[in-house]
Design brief:
Layout lengths: L3 H10 L2 H13 L4 H22 L4 H23 L7 E8 L6 H12 L2 E10 L1 H11 L3 E5 L3 H4 L1 H11 L5 E5 L5 H7 L3 E2 L3 H13 L1
Parallel strand pairs: 1-2, 1-3, 3-4, 4-5
Helix pairs in contact: 1-2, 1-3, 1-4, 2-4, 3-4, 4-5, 5-10, 6-8
């Protein structure tokens, strides 16, 4: 059996090939996908974040760690997202302008898909009009916006305003490590969630009205 702590450590070390191979092996062995995600990939990423905060890691290490995590996530994505439930709603998901962090929003997207939502992930570093265009094209019920930097968080307000100005029916849900409920209220977001599983709950709640 592949030891999940070994995968976690390889994420921390930024060993993308090892992470991918071990995750594949763990899946083949029948290890639980949710545990591989939480105890190996997410925990590894969070330790990388702690080390960066303490000054033990610098940007290159943080980048390698994220790349390794994403290699593992690629293996898990098809397994997490399978769902035969009718679409619970249509969601546009993206990261705010100036921000290239995409792991959090990718996980939220996967969890929403796994819960029956139709999600279109439009990428990172997106100006407000990109969200508006995509929401129109897809007749979206919800728009999810992620921002990890205190600077890019501020741009979320512009997205909410652009959505309102365009007269769209879509509700805007926001998240990211520095985002809080208080901030969401302040900028007039329809919803906020601190993590992927509460994002699913919040999305369902917003669909109800
Ligand atoms: C990996 C990482 C990177 C990678 C990103 C790779 C990638 N492809 O995403 C790289 C190395 C590129 C990077 C770059 C930078 N980073 Co960085 N990064 C991180 C790190 C370590 C982890 C982020 C992550 O992926 N976490 C794992 C995911 C699963 O968690 P999450 O993103 O929080 O998402 C969860 C929730 O927030 C929520 N959520 C997220 N999005 C959404 C959306 C919705 C709609 C909802 C409802 C919920 C939701 O659900 C998610 C799942 O549970 C964090 C540290 C940390 N502790 O967060 C710093 C961090 C975010 N980075 C930081 C900084 C400063 C930078 C740089 C500016 C560094 C620099 N000097 O260049 C650049 C900015 C680049 C840019 N323009 O965006 C700071 C931000 C500080 C701040 N408050 O402004 C942090 C907090 C590190 C720190 N302590 O200083 N980074």
């Amino acid at each position: 059996m592949v030891d999940l702590t070994k995968i976690r450590d390889s994420v921390i070390e930024g060993e993308a090939d090892e992470v991918r191979d071990m995750v594949k092996k763990a899946v083949d062995e029948g290890q639980e996908v949710g545990r591989i995600l939480n105890e190996a990939l997410l925990l590894g990423t969070s330790i990388v974040g702690d080390k960066y905060e303490k000054g033990e890691f610098f940007l290159p290490e943080m980048f390698l760690g994220a790349t390794a995590m994403k290699e593992g996530l690629k293996v898990l994505t098809p397994l997490l997202a399978h769902s035969d439930i009718k679409a619970a709603g249509t969601v546009i998901m993206g990261t705010a302008e100036g921000d290239i962090h995409d792991i959090g929003k990718t996980i939220v997207s996967i969890m929403l898909e796994a819960s029956g939502f139709m999600v279109t992930d439009i990428g990172v570093d997106l100006a407000p009009d990109k969200f508006v265009e995509a929401a129109k094209e897809n007749n979206a019920d919800l728009i999810g916006v992620s921002a990890m930097l205190t600077t890019t968080m501020m741009g979320m307000k512009d997205i909410i305003e652009a959505v309102k100005e365009a007269g769209l029916k879509a509700k805007v849900m926001i998240g990211g490590s520095s985002v809080t409920q208080e901030f969401a209220d302040e900028i007039g977001a329809d919803g906020y969630a601190p993590d992927a599983s509460s994002a699913v709950k919040k999305a369902k709640e917003l669909m109800k009205g």
